[in-house]
Design a protein that fits this description.
Layout: E1 23-31, E2 36-44, E3 50-58, E4 61-70, E5 73-79, E6 88-95, E7 101-107, E8 110-116, E9 127-131, E10 134-141, E11 147-153, E12 156-162, E13 170-171, E14 193-196, E15 202-209, E16 215-223, E17 226-227, E18 232-233, E19 238-239, E20 242-254, E21 260-269, E22 272-281, E23 284-285, E24 289-290, E25 297-304, E26 310-316, E27 321-327, E28 330-338, E29 348-351, E30 357-364, E31 369-377, E32 383-384, E33 388-389, E34 401-405, E35 411-417, E36 424-431, E37 450-452, E38 464-469, E39 472-477, E40 481-483, E41 492-501, E42 507-509, E43 513-517, E44 523-531, E45 534-542, E46 552-558, E47 565-567, E48 570-574, E49 579-589, E50 594-603
Antiparallel strand pairs: 1-36, 2-3, 3-4, 4-5, 6-7, 7-8, 8-9, 10-11, 11-12, 12-13, 14-15, 15-16, 16-17, 16-18, 19-20, 20-21, 21-22, 22-23, 22-24, 25-26, 26-27, 27-28, 29-30, 30-31, 31-32, 31-33, 34-35, 35-36, 37-40, 38-39, 38-41, 41-42, 41-43, 44-45, 45-48, 46-47, 46-49, 49-50
Length: 604
Amino acid sequence: MPRLLPAIVTAAVLAVPASAQAAFFPAEVVDGSPDVVSVGDVDLSRDGNGLVGYLRNDGGAKHAFVARFVDGAFQGPERVDGGTTADTSQVVVAASDSGRLAIAYVNEGRLWTMVKPKDATGFAAPTIVAEGGISNPSIDMSINGATYVSWTQNGDVRVARANRDTPQFVPLPSPVDVDVARDAGSGDRKASRVVVSADGTALVVWGEDGADGRTHVYARRLFELRLSTAPQDLTLNDVDGVSAGGADNAEVDIEDDSSFAQVTFRQNTANGPRVVMRRLLGSTFDPHVAADGGGFALRARIDLTGRGEGLVATALAGGETAGSSIFNNKFNMFTKVGAGQAIDPRSVAAIGENEDGGVMWMQGTADNAEVRGQYWNNIEKPEPEPQAAISSAPVDVNGGLDAAASRAGDIAVVFVQGKNGDRRLVAGIFDKPPNRNAGYTTQKPRRLSKLRWAPSLNLFGPVRYRVLVDDKPIAETAAQELILQPGQVPDGEHRWQIVAIDRRNQETISRSRLLRVDNTPPSLRIGLKKKKRVLTVTAKGGDPDGAFPTGLDRILVDFGDGKLLPMGRKATKRYARLGTYVVRVKAVDKAGNETVQQRSVKIG
């Protein structure tokens, strides 16, 4: 963090409220235009920055817009499909650390992509990756910036890749389909999803018509521009002893290690639709586990950390939502979190690298729906917090719902709320308070000119710091140090703390730390006695009355030749030359304070 000049605020105008708790902050406006149509996709990098892609009516047609998420807040809308008057559809986005962003959208049957290179201020010009019969794009980016986009083109699933340092996508020469003669990726239920591991290896899942008359869910690994020769059919023949039909609604996420991933999908059975999950282990998949608690379900959204821990949000039949955790590769704690209603809950999950995250969903009726969320602390031993309302007005149930998390478990939940002229794109934010920091300034007695402390981690925006001395605020600053004014902290023993405050006025206070201050110079008395060319200097120093007693450290004398020499109670020098000399005596206490006295003496 760049060093800033401290902004001093007098104690008279400072207050010390109780520390705030982390919470969902409802419905911050992202785009207040009533012409907003729907959310496409939202993504955050691990460092907490990212973007949302959405559709908005503009000039008589639907167009692709994005709003970047920077320092904990969404920025203004940006139209990204300029130059076209036709409808745009299905905008998707991806984000990585260092500011690399990517967008894909469909316009006039063409797949367009745009990339903002890392550290660049804006996006490169849009380019056409494929054209003719395009639908259902999906995009993802590794933590190092390697980017893949998948899409459906005339009944085939295809993929393109961009290197981490380029904006250009190169299509793979062949479709990923198992049988290119059969329909793959068409419609919402068979749409592909692509995810990328830390090493730049990807995994794509999709639905494809099978020779047996069923829809199958397949998974295939991608090695740069090469396809794995061993695509995997994840479709089941039975679920818990009940015969199974077709499979669809595949979702996927991958670990940093490309050997491991989790896929969820709907498996239709003779008794009704189930949602199951299968784990990629190397080149094969483990047996399935139920992700629906044994009941009927529509789909499940999954989000993993780089180590494979995760959260699953399952949309159950009847409009209920369930949340579950994955820890040590085990599916745990299936918990219903949303009330059953007559709408699709569009359940989503988001988790940070610290293994904190949330499950979000819609509930209510088509005319009066709301977005709710439940935060989960520590999925090793899940401690779900109470459910919270995120929306502040009726929600458009067809306007989409998506969420993403930073590595610290902060979450942005994006949806459309309001009607007619009050319609707008909004984001509910789960913003964790700043991390507790610690003071650097020594606890040893010392002369004090400034206080220093460690920065407080807060990915969703800047932090300011309130300095407390003996429980009283003395200043606020955006820096990690405070230059003290004379007398601002008097001599003596004190306790001091730092209150870290984020952009939403959440506060975290540091542990109390001892401060021993001695800013009072030592007392010093000197005497000079001359006999011919011999000069004797006597000195006595110590702590003055009322000073914090750190004690005298040393006394030094300069007989006029520029050399400071240690002395006890007295020191003697024989001068070789006649002349006038300036004798300086310096007393230094154990806190580093100094007192200097000098006398002129004539020799000869």
